[in-house]
Amino acid sequence: MAALARFACEAPGPVRHVCGGVHASAEPAATLAVGFDLVVVGEV
Question: What is the number of domains present in the chain?
Answer without folding.
Answer: 1
